[in-house]
Design brief:
Chain lengths: 459, 305
Amino acid sequence: MPAEAPDRAPPSLVGRALKEALVTGFLAFALFLPLVGFVSVQSMTNTLLLEARWESLFSVVALIAIARFLYVLAGPWLERRRARAKPSAPASNLRKVFSKFFTPFALGFAVVYPIFVLAFTGINPGALKWIDNFGIQILIYVMLGWGLNIVVGLAGLLDLGYVAFYAVGAYSYALLSKEFGMSFWMLLPLSGILASFWGVLLGFPVLRLRGDYLAIVTLAFGEIIRLVLINWVSLTNGYAGISGIPRPTFFGIPFNASDEGFAAIFGLEFSPLYRTIFLYYLILALALFTAFITIRLRRMPVGRAWEALREDEIACRSLGINTTNTKLTAFAMGAMLAGFAGSFFSARQGFISPESFTFIESATILSIVVLGGMGSQIGVAIAAILLVGGTEIMRELDFLKQIFGNDFEPIRYRMLLFGAAMVLIMIWKPRGLISTREPSIFLEERKAIPADLLKEGRG
Amino acid sequence: MEVFVQQLINGLTLGSIYGLIAIGYTMVFGILNMVNFAHSGVFMVSAFIALNALLLITTWFGVSSMVMALMIIMVISMVLSAVLNWTIERVAYRPLRKSFRLAPLISSIGMSIFLTNFVQVTQGQRNKSIPPLFHKQIILMDNGNYTVAVSYEQITIWVVTILLLGAFWFLVTKTSLGRAQRACEQDQKMASLVGVNVDRTISITFVIAAALAAVAGSMYLMYYGVVSFSDGFVPGIKAFTAAVLGGIGSLPGAVIGGLIIGLIETMWSAYFSIDYKDVAVFGVLAIVLIFLPQGILGRPDVEKV
């Protein structure tokens, strides 16, 4: 320690930072030694051999130690900034304007997004990636997030098996359309109804449970449905999944290269792009439908009952609200929306397998809801864009290969960073990105409720 | 009869592993009231630590005595997993301790995804398999066409589990650390008022939980001879089922629950359908929670206003 004063004076900042960096470095060394420092590889004779990777180990450890060093050094500065930020609690003018115009702007952007992409790339398959991987993928999660938001954000029921209803919707569409040739527009409501039926069926026995127990049982149900999908091979074709699922049509006009196809009828050159754009607007409409009914439901007695239930179940019961029925409606409503999203998903993919409905999927949707700020629709949308868009963009970072060499594949780090981001956002904003809550009922003036008052049930 | 005895032996072995993991869930739930999803990740990481340690001491240092090797890898895995879980608590849960209920839960889900993918990135996607450590087994019954045997691995698992549970029981009931831990479980604020260092106690809880999971992880590796990055999730959920079944917060309950879950799984595989064994376990979880929410040995949840 170069800067340590001899006579027990408080150690200087640099000295403290060095010490902390050293301690962190040791810790990181212990943490990363077994799994970064060593790797087991299969030899020619099929036995495992151990290889050491000292360079990776030491670069990781050094990186962490340096980060810690800089963080401690920046400590006083951060503290000062935080102290300065505190008094200016009332929202600034800019912020008010921002929050007022954000929603219409975001909506407008969502509507023109495909045109925007086409303007940049021209009508060629290159645009497909941006509309499909980013637009449609993100919107599916926005819709699922908004659907789960009814269950978790409004009714306060922690559901870790939401993907089960998504799966029910997807398989309903896939099986019914393949076996009976029913059209997408008939099956869309039907899969929603089937999913909500399952929601009621699963919800009925478990909704007496509270909090974490409910979470675990829903998780178990989600896993049961997935395992049944895997093992009931005669119906679902097991792991191999169902392929060749009929794609949706433009109100009866198929998107194909035939004379009856969309392109031919409208006098356009055939391109797979039209279907993608149609699907984009379809999921946008479905997502907006979800948002719309959520907003409307919040003002209806049942929505008020959900929110009351979230705040205090016992008070609800003493006021004569049938808590089981109220929970069931929330569960069924959430399940129905997941069913819609599921049937859209299988129509878009043309192929589904149980792989798409794992626990990670449920966890992703739940974290979108919680990271967005429970109950906040805009927050959920932003969280979906950040998490899903962020992981999708990792696929596009091939230029990093030039920096780190050809062995470096950004895709492999996708879920790793996803998990880390979940932890970091939670620590940074435990109540979610948008933690204020718009009251559904108010006296004289509508004002947003700051996060720290939410606990007192003022939402 | 022979099939039954064999499945009983297998079930108790599996149940011991689940029981050891379940203790980690139940302790953390008891003290922090949160489901620690990352615990299954810690279990899986510990199995990988054990694997690499085993390869290190057998192929690099040439230790040939398997008993010795097993003891060494267990200790290494326990220590390193404890450091890992201590860090996880420090980084991902402690900042959220005073925060609202769902925050640590989401954080732990994130941590679990992180751990799974960390192992996938650093150790590869493939299954890692090792040759069996002991080639011996004891034949208990033999009626000509079906032999009932106990392998040395199974005996090791029982012995280690019993020893560890004994030590653990002593730690929780007889030492001041255990007393502090039980005090924090009942009332953290009150415990801190009478001089219990709550933060330290919680840290130690995570350390103990990880050490037990590490033993389970090493034995899982030894028993099955194969481990992959995705191996944490299902045993983790089953161990959590065991903790809930036994009554969450109750330590003997976790062990009993683990044994019951292990037995249900093996019996179901033997007599009904091996494909649906996990469905059976999760079904049991749902049924138990619906009809007996406090579990076998748990205290009933009192609703307070």
